[in-house]
Amino acid sequence: MTLALSRRSPQTLHRIIKDAARAVKIARKEDPTALQKISDSSDGDPFRVLISTVLSHRTKDPTTAAASSRLFTAFPDALSLSTANVRTVARLIRPVGFYRKKAKTVKRLAKIILDEYQGVVPGEVEELLKLPSVGRKTANCVLVFGFRKPAIPVDTHVHRIFNRLGVVETKTPEETEMELVRVVDRRDWLDLNDVFVKFGQLVCRPIGPKCSACPLNDRCRYYREYYPKKIHAS
Ligand code: SF4
After folding, report:
1. What percent of the chain has pLDDT over 90?
2. What is the chain's mean pLDDT, rounded?
3. What is the CA radius of gyration of the chain?
4. Which residues 6+ apart lie within 8 Å of 65 measured at CB?
5. What is the pLDDT of residue 197?
6. Is the pLDDT of residue 3 over 60?
7. What is the 105 CA–ligand 1 centroid distance (Å)?
8. Confidence at residue 29, expressed as pLDDT on a 0 to 100 scale
9. Which long-range contacts link 29-35 to residues 24+ away (Cβ below 8 Å)?
10. pLDDT of residue 1
11. Burial track 139-174 (b if 16+ CB lie within 10 A, e otherwise)
């Protein structure tokens, strides 16, 4: 079951998102997330965003960005990737997590896009979810970074941070997405993932969040309820 802990207004959440964005900018100006980088470098090509998002599962951003760049240099589109040799693809994308399996998946995706969608990645979540290895997060990433359509991709960073903040109390990223879609103003949807993935890498890290320096600590449930105890215990 999903619960919004505190009924924070869209305006309050807008300020939270803006403050997180500012903190990320100060901490690391020139370092976009892998998906933003791929979206920028390919003019938001939905096919490349789709393939890169699949590569990004359980893989660090710099590894994803480098693997995507090698792959698209050799196979720039669905047509070329659909006929690629799987072993060559695996070699190009290594060391992303599960690279052998992903090599087969991305080739299969390219073939489906070519055969069933006339080479054009669909821009609707329902169609994207029919594709192999595409769950809600990937589908929403394609919408945001490929089509610039408002959606909220929820990965582990977004899920963890909004639970720590106390904006949601949810068990899964899917539940978090449903809650955030309900409470966050639509104008903030496009930026939310990029801001909070970076915020999660730099400030609200999975282990050792930098709470004392965090610009959101005055609005954070974790900081209020758990952080002082942690400090006293250490
Ligand atoms: S105060 Fe700590 S737990 Fe809360 S958002 Fe900031 S870094 Fe994360």
Report:
1. 79
2. 91
3. 19
4. 34, 37, 38, 52
5. 92
6. no
7. 36
8. 54
9. 31/198, 32/194, 32/198, 33/61, 33/194, 33/197, 33/198, 34/61, 34/62, 34/64, 34/65, 34/68, 35/141, 35/145, 35/193, 35/194
10. 40
11. bbbbbbbbbeebbbbbbebbbbbbbbbbbbbbeebe
Ligand 1 neighbour 230 (Cβ under 6 A): no
CATH of domain 45-147: 1.10.340.30
Asked whether 214 lines ligand 1 (CB < 6 A), one says: yes
- The predicted-structure confidence for 133-186, as pLDDT tens digits, reads as follows 999 999 999 999 999 999 999 999 999 999 999 999 999 999 999 999 999 999
Q: Is the CB of 220 under 6 A from ligand 1?
A: yes
Ligand 1 pocket mutation pick from 158, 160, 214, 224 by most atoms within 8 angstroms of CB: 214
Architecture of the CATH domain 10-30+151-233:
Orthogonal Bundle (1.10)
Q: Is it true that 10-30+151-233 and 45-147 share their CATH fold?
A: no
Chain centre distance of CA 6: 25
Q: Separation of 202 CA from ligand 1 center, angstroms?
A: 11
Domain boundaries, the chain: 10-30+151-233, 45-147
Cβ(164) – ligand 1 distance below 6 Å? yes
204 lines ligand 1 (CB under 6 A): yes
Give CA–CA dist 42/49, Å, rounded.
9
